[in-house]
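thought: fold this chain, then report.
action: predict
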Amino acid sequence: MLENEKIKVINFLQDFGCATLEQLQILFNKPNDNFKDILNGNIISKKRNIFIHNTQELDMKMIYALDVLCKYKSRFKQFHKGFFPIYITFLTKDNTLYNIIVTDKENEKGLLKLLRVNSPIISEADKFILLFQDSNCFKELECNVPYIYCVYPELKIINKRGI
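observation:
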């Protein structure tokens, strides 16, 4: 791996905190790279197949959000890390803006309320990809923005509204 490419991967991990080997291979178009070059020094560590920047912690919700981003790899033209509860915002080639929102059991009721009242905490997007730990919240979901409701960790799509 060239030094410039190595720096890009390290910067990505610094921004997003962590990523699996498979996610790095997809996002950086390097399907045969094992990314061992970035482990030199004390900047990046590896736990099982997950690379973690030394200033960050393992965040499984970010891993799930990156799984979604990888599924859209052929359609997006740019992306960036968001702020809780938005993990990633990306723009597709047809200029559709998506927010990937991930919650857990602890925060799901609060997120449902934020979506219901169109809270300014959740920045505007053309579409949402909502990741919940189970399908129980779907029946309580009220949202004016088109969305895909998914259950993680398997990323099973429960419903697509307006998409």
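thought: worth noting. Strands lie at 18-20, 44-47, 50-53, 76-81, 86-92, 97-102, 127-132, 147-151, 156-161.
final: tokens above.
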